[in-house]
Write a structure and sequence with these properties.
The termini are far apart. The chain is globular. About 45% of the residues lie in helices and about 15% in strands. Strand 5 and strand 6 form a beta hairpin. By secondary structure, the protein is an alpha+beta fold. The protein folds into two domains: about 110 residues, 2-Layer Sandwich (Phosphorylase Kinase, domain 1), CATH 3.30.200; about 200 residues, Aminoglycoside 3'-phosphotransferase, Chain: A, domain 2 (Alpha-Beta Complex), CATH 3.90.1200.10. Strands 1, 2, 3, 4, 5 and 6 form a six-stranded antiparallel sheet that branches.
Length: about 325
């Protein structure tokens, strides 16, 4: 019987084979190398050749259709073209297509996209208030663009509403499969989920509150290059509440004691660009816990990733106090 660790190593070898097989699809210099830099939903590789760099994304099997990937690329190109935010530039292959399909013997075909390498660095996390204000402003610019942009025909992205997170669809699996859950935590989390559902039904999905958003606006997906702010990794972009982008900024740190100050900084940056009503601001804690419980589900369904391994049971344990506080405030 193959151990989980061995199977994970085999998966990494398969992904490396796919990445290397994708290189001839593009007009790249000879002696090109592919080095994995991230494994989450997709596998991302740094491509090096002739003193230049590119980013190659090998898409997770069965997560997004080719149409959905094309829709993501259409929006990030429009954001850059229209001056909303600077986004990565996807490159066409030798066949003139942005999305390549790599099929190897014994493996299922994978979609692959190559991007120009974006310079810049992630914001310094030693002092988060400034970066969160920058994050709020960048998010507002994207929301303004989303509200006005005419999407191409056959535009297809996932919908991150209650059903997509916790209901009939559950894109990332069930929070009940999170690490370290017991009967007591399960009952508490269910009470919180029920209250979230009730409040979101009341909040509604009006045009001013629900639309196409990034869905993963963390500092890890910002690059600061001088005076320029760049937004990367649109793989989760889809339809959800605009305030969900605020919650995603707090991914994995929702339990920190300075979260109220971070939200205040995000809101300040957002309001410098676009309006945000007091009633919307009041509902931010709902989306923070919504995201937190969604990440409990993600960790449970992505146990093989380094991020899930690093968060694990303690992340579920730290969610207890958040649920209790939310129920005390809104229940």
């Amino acid at each position: 019987m193959t151990s989980p660790d061995v199977s994970h190593q085999e998966k990494l070898k398969e992904l490396q084979r796919i990445a290397e097989a994708a290189l001839p699809f593009y007009d790249l210099p000879p002696e090109t190398t592919a080095t994995m830099i991230n494994l989450s939903e997709n596998a991302t590789y740094r491509i090096d050749a002739g003193g230049r760099k590119w980013a190659l994304r090998v898409h997770r099997e069965g997560y997004h259709s080719k149409t959905a990937i094309g829709s993501e690329l259409a929006w990030l190109q429009a954001l850059r073209r229209d001056g909303a935010v600077t986004t990565p530039v996807p490159l066409k292959g030798r066949n003139g297509e942005l999305i390549q399909i790599v099929a190897l013997a014994g493996l299922k075909a994978r979609h692959v996209v190559l991007f120009d390498w974006e310079t810049g660095a992630e914001p310094d996390e030693s002092e988060l208030l400034g970066p969160f204000e920058v994050l709020g402003a960048a998010t507002a610019r994207m929301h303004l663009h989303s509200r006005k942009w005419t999407r191409p025909q056959n535009f297809e992205r996932l919908t991150w509403d209650f059903d997509g997170a916790f209901g009939k669809v559950q894109h990332w699996g069930s929070w009940r499969d999170g690490m370290g859950l017991d009967a007591g935590k399960t009952r508490l989390f269910q009470r919180a989920v029920d209250l979230i559902e009730k409040r979101l039904e009341s909040f509604g999905k009006g045009h001013e509150r629900f639309g196409l958003i990034h869905c993963d606006m963390r500092l890890a997906n910002l690059l600061i290059d001088g005076d320029e702010t760049k937004v990367i990794d649109f793989d989760d972009c889809g339809f959800s509440w605009y305030l969900y982008d605020c919650a995603t900024a707090l991914s994995f740190i929702e339990h920190r004691p300075d979260v109220p100050e971070l939200i205040e900084a995000w809101v300040k940056g957002y309001r410098a660009v676009a309006p945000l009503s007091p009633s919307d601001e009041h509902e931010i804690p709902t989306f923070v816990l919504y995201r937190r419980l969604l990440l409990v589900a993600w960790i449970g369904s992505h146990a093989e990733t380094d991020l899930a391994k690093s968060m694990g049971v303690p992340y579920t344990k730290d969610t207890v106090a958040l649920c209790e506080s939310y129920l005390a405030k809104f229940g």
